[in-house]
Model the fold of this input.
Amino acid sequence: MHRTYDQPPTLRPKLLTLALMAHLAIMAVLAPTIVHAQDTAPPADNAPATTDKAKTLESVTVTGSRIRRVDVETANPVVTVDRSQIAASGKATLGDIVQELPSIAGNATNANTNNGGGTGAATISLRGMGDKRTLILVNGVRLAYNDVNSIPANMIDRVEVLSDGASAIYGSDAIGGVVNFILRDKFDGVQFSGDFGESSHSDGFRRNFSLTAGHTGQRGSIVAGIDHQSLDAVSASSRAFSRDALNLTGGQVIVSGSSATPSGSITLPRSVAGQIGCGSRVSLNSGVSGATTLNNYHCYSNADTYNYQGDNILQTPQERNSLFLIGKYKLTDAVEAYANFYYTKTQSDSQIAPVPVFANGDNFVVSAQNYYNPFGVNFGTDRVTGDNYGDFNTRFTTLGYRRYQYKTYNMQFTPGLRGNFGDSSWQWDTNFNYGKVRQKSVNYGFLDYAQLQQGLGPSFLDASTGKVTCGTPGSPISGCTPINIFNVNDPTTIAALRDIQRNPTATNDYIVKQFEANANGNLFSLPAGEVSLATGVSYRKESTSTWTDPLAVGDANGLCGIVEFCTSVLSGSFNVKEAYAEALFPLLADKPWAQALNITIGSRYSDYSTAGSNTSSKVALEWRPIQNLLLRGTVSQVFRAPNINELYSGIANDSPTVNDPCNFYTGGHAQACANVPVDGSYQQANPQISAKTSGAVPAGYQLKPEQGKSFDFGVVYDPQWLPGLSMSADVWRINLNDTITAISAQTVLNQCYANAASPFCNFIHRFDTGNINYVSEPTVNLGALSTKGVDGTLAYRFDETRFGRFNARLDWTYVARYDINPDPADPTAVTIHNAGKYTYAYGNFPRWRGLATLNWTRGPWSASWRIRYIGRTQVGSADEQQQLSADLSIPAVVRRVGAYAYHNVQAGYDFAPWHTRLDLGVDNVTNKQPPLLYQNNVTNSNTDVATYDVMGRYYWLRATVTF
Done:
């Protein structure tokens, strides 16, 4: 059975032997380049324009290949966003700009990611493959910290986005594609820019200031700059769609929330509940002070739930300061030294509701002998014995919000040398890349576990002092304050809780060191042209280390000393040695129906100290049957080695809901059901259990790389009969196996129950009674991913008229398939089909996405109109086997969400006599509100904050002065 609720639409065959690889690696050392496309960058911002045609065409490299070529359009589908487009967008950060591209989909963090974000980072998920499968480069060198917001926007000349698997060229991570930020190394003068913005709700205020200075001489150039950005917080309560926790339940939209409430949610034995006249659950009446009695409670109802959503942040506050330096200098006519340096400090926050306490999930006991316990029975779960009593849920609102304050320091320095060998075509490049990221967090609103448990233990009224005392009359406990958890708003309880409040801190350091040597040039001639080769070697070492408060560190059982906060002190490192080669063979040229026919082959060998060796190869074909038509195709092997966080990330708490497969156990599954009675009497005490997430190393799991293949076949047509028009379309497909993912507790239990030899059996920890103590949820290899679709571009540059010049462009992506098989080895595993759907685990994959732009210039005036289109999608699946339902209580419910179109406009005027330019713009002109996906399907604000605009109409103004 399924129901549909509609929402009205709103708008490892190796191609090169290892012997060849070794030979090419030696060549790279002896004739060690990669010459970036910025070596032929357009004129500096304040340089005069020229209409003279170039007398010679200089070869350059374009993202996706390391071979220098004259052709810009090659077998690699690359979208370029230049400085003028960045400026016209009005976006404050690079993350805001890139995330609008149609090829970006799925879960990616931004300033609107509060729950699960808050670090200020913006990540990129090409093809919806996730940010870990999208490689970020700066001038062709790996970005140390996968946050594009950490790159100062005023140091960027353009952004090249390769939407094709490129592991054979760049190594690990380049599965969904590559985003390469090209630096502006030519600028003369001084430029100051100030930017201000505010929403139509008079909130979300932003301030951005940048100062850039540069000089270009005969032998070199230097560009330097500083940048400041700040963004104010916006409360979720300030928007109608996000102020309440809304759930779709039983076909109805219910304003609901958490059962962890300040007034408590208590499950009582029926004998006790019957004294109040309730079936089982009760809640405290309002206005009660001090100790409570049975008369102070009423039957629990939905009206008692806690609206945690109003405590959240819709837009996280951020402040970012950065500086950069880009320089190059010719030491001789054949050798040039260069260096790129930038440093960014980011302060940001996230905020969620005050800490909830689930006596069962958090494994502590409220003693029946506690002085303040009016019911005379135990509540909770004993973390030592596993004995389970009644549920007790509450929320410590008097401690204030749980607030996570982050300070992130990011530095990257890349010095190098490059040059050529005499008059030959061979060029070389060597560089050293050093990056360091330090992230400090202070976490507010938590409690000391041991002191809380002691305060909830037995206590009594000491007749000699008149004070409630921990322990028993015959054995009092000193240094302990009894806690009246049954009335968290009582002033005495507030004081006791604040005495045991803890604000744990954590610091993580990440360092990457990398050396590269590259060379490229022509090998020999064929009738159709020169055979070109690019080759190189690299060595990279990554390391991480974490410090935290001792109380927050998990013990041997994975239990932590702070309620609802857990981490671990870990350090680790790995290194990788790599060699690559890429060769271009021109097969035909200037022939009928073969103006050009080229084939490119490439291969990269990687040897990881943690994940072993891997060889990834590619074959690319380009065919121009006529001059203005290019047919292209690439077949690549792709891979991704486990990153340092997936290996070494520390332990953190989780409280998943599971169905124990050992319920009513009668034997036969000893590994999965250790200590469980075999007489069929066992039934799990509570569906919500304790779990510990972590990297693979803390759990003793050996990760291996993801492996797969990428296919891309396309056509580019620039018709001679209509100058200014350009069209392209590319069909793509990616298949990936052994995906690296965090395993769920339910999968751990099911896998071990089905297969006693499963390595996941080691993740299950039970008490002597058979009850689940906790389940480890580490990063593992599990699953397969397959996606395919089509990308397209249509651009037209109109002739200049007396009304000015117009340029129009449309970029679009169609996703035909996005399938996840959670466990290909399990014949019962159900493939999840994500194309055209939103799902909690993977994000939003509407079949159609587009970005249309119309630009106009006339003299000092300019204007632009951008339309971002997000196609129809749906929440839930009609296939009950997929267990995806938009409704919390009814299976197989599908809820359709209509298409969205966001309109952004901008206009500017250049006051040439004053060297000043003013730009103003409006984003989301129609003030379109995001669709309601409901809190039972999402983690933030009842909607998908990675896809839809949540701020509403937004005004911005920018002034730029150039000296």
Observations:
- The CA atoms of residues 149 and 319 lie 11 Å apart.
- The radius of gyration is 31 Å.
- The chain is about 5% helix and 45% strand.
